[in-house]
Automatic annotation (TrEMBL):
Uppermost EC category: lyase
Stored Gene3D superfamilies: Enolase-like C-terminal domain, Enolase-like, N-terminal domain
Documented EC number(s): 4.2.1.40
Pfam families: MR_MLE_C, MR_MLE_N
Superkingdom field: Bacteria
Entries under InterPro entries matching the protein: DgoD-like, Enolase-like_C_sf, Enolase-like_N, Enolase_C-like, Mandelate_racemase_C, Mandelate_racemase_N_dom
Protein name: glucarate dehydratase
Any GO MF annotation of the entry: glucarate dehydratase activity
The reaction(s) this protein catalyses: D-glucarate = 5-dehydro-4-deoxy-D-glucarate + H2O
Pathway per the UniProt entry: Carbohydrate acid metabolism; D-glucarate degradation; 2,5-dioxopentanoate from D-glucarate: step 1/2
Start and end residues of each Mandelate racemase/muconate lactonizing enzyme C-terminal domain: 147-251
């Protein structure tokens, strides 16, 4: 089988999610937005799909010359070649681009063989417990504007919807009075009070606190019996994370957004900069590197907690021998109906049952049920 073409279709949809000036997502007025679908075409008529955009110039100048003519089953060879090309093309061939290509290749392999990706990887399980992961704090009345808002929402997520665990993303600039260690701890305490002593709770706060502020947070969370904290400081300072781990009994989960794929994760494990290693398909360049990190973590007897949702992360979670404990479901907000599939999908990628388990799709490839008619009807010229 040979790759003969790679195409990107961009289409319109109506969104009620907006981004603030720092890029964090919040509910907002309905507006037109776009999404893209990348398709890898083969000479045998099998195709692989992944949602995500690759600029046309990157596709034509870098990706197509490397991939057209290749056997799509040589995923490792393709991924290694793309990774090596990054050195002189960092601005255009970044890890998000590698992610889209790699996921489409896994989808293609699954579709060609009639198997879902977690079974190609070597399946371990078919469902994973989820945690409810909130959007960042805001100033919307009845939204996520106060510690009481977080408490009310956590109570609903755990007691009504059945989530076994809950993670707060607290306030970040440009919101007034953010960041604030004091207010973060008030929200964390209110959530603990609302859900009781036994529910695992996590915090993902402002990402640029100082060492002292991060330690203050960690000490507060120790008292509240929190399960882990993510990215409270700039992840480029690994030494700060080593220092934090040495000074708190609270489990520290990372690195999340730091560049460097499995290489960075290996260094963090070696130097004791994390207690739980972190990675997601979107952070590290796809399923191919994420499964390497899962195996790396397993070899060190450490859990890998997967960052973010979506089909790629869910398939990896279902194929890990030393399982990451939770699937991150979100980002959630009291004003957003997360149970509604995106208009370009016929069903949710991550349906959750009443016990809080997310079930992986058994359809071939990434297992997404794509509404191709919707995409065709809403194409952007
Ligand atoms: O762990 C997560 O879900 C995130 O990191 C989600 C977002 O990136 C959040 O941290 C943010 O908006 O800064």
């Amino acid at each position: 089988m040979k790759i003969v073409d790679i195409t990107v279709q961009t289409f319109r949809y109506t969104s009620n999610i907006v981004r603030d000036s720092e890029g964090h997502a919040h509910p907002g007025p309905e507006h037109e937005a776009t999404q893209s679908l990348l398709t890898i075409h083969t000479d045998e008529g099998v195709q692989g799909y992944c949602f995500g955009n690759i600029p046309r110039s990157t596709l034509e100048r870098l990706i197509k010359p490397m991939l057209v003519g290749e056997d799509p089953f040589y995923r490792e060879r393709i991924w290694q070649a793309l990774k090596e090309r990054q050195r002189l093309n960092l601005a255009t061939l970044h890890d998000k681009v590698l992610t889209v290509i790699d996921m489409a290749l896994w989808d293609l392999a699954g579709r060609a063989l009639g198997q879902p990706v977690h079974r190609l990887l070597g399946a371990m399980r078919d469902k994973v417990p989820a945690y409810a992961s909130t959007m960042c704090g805001d100033d919307l009345e009845g939204g996520l504007a106060t510690p009481e808002d977080y408490a009310r929402f956590a109570e609903w997520c755990v007691k009504e919807r059945g989530y076994p665990a809950f993670k707060l993303h607290t306030w970040q600039p440009p919101y007034p009075n953010a960041p604030s260690v004091k207010r973060d701890l008030e929200a964390c305490a209110a959530v603990r009070e609302a859900v009781g002593p036994d529910v695992p709770l996590m915090l993902d706060p402002f990402h640029y606190y100082s060492r002292e502020e991060a330690l203050q947070l960690a000490k507060g969370l120790e008292k509240l019996n929190y399960y882990w904290m993510e990215e409270p400081m700039d992840e480029h300072s690994m030494s700060s994370y080593v220092w934090l781990c040495e000074n708190t009994s609270l489990p520290i989960c990372g690195p999340e957004t730091a560049e460097g794929k499995m290489f960075t994760r290996a260094e963090w494990i070696k130097y004791g900069a994390c207690d739980l290693v972190r990675g997601g398909v979107g952070d590290v360049g796809g399923i191919t590197p994420l499964i390497k990190i899962a195996h790396l973590a397993e070899a060190f007897g450490m859990r890998m907690e997967v960052h973010g949702g979506g089909p790629g992360n869910l398939h990896v979670l279902c194929a890990m021998g030393n399982p990451g404990e939770f699937y991150e479901r979100g980002l959630l907000h009291p004003f957003i109906d997360y149970e509604q599939p995106k208009p370009w999908l016929n069903r949710l990628d991550d349906p959750m049952d009443d016990e809080g388990f997310v079930h992986v799709s058994q359809l071939p490839g990434l297992g997404q049920d794509i509404n191709f008619d919707y995409i065709q009807d809403n194409l952007v010229e």
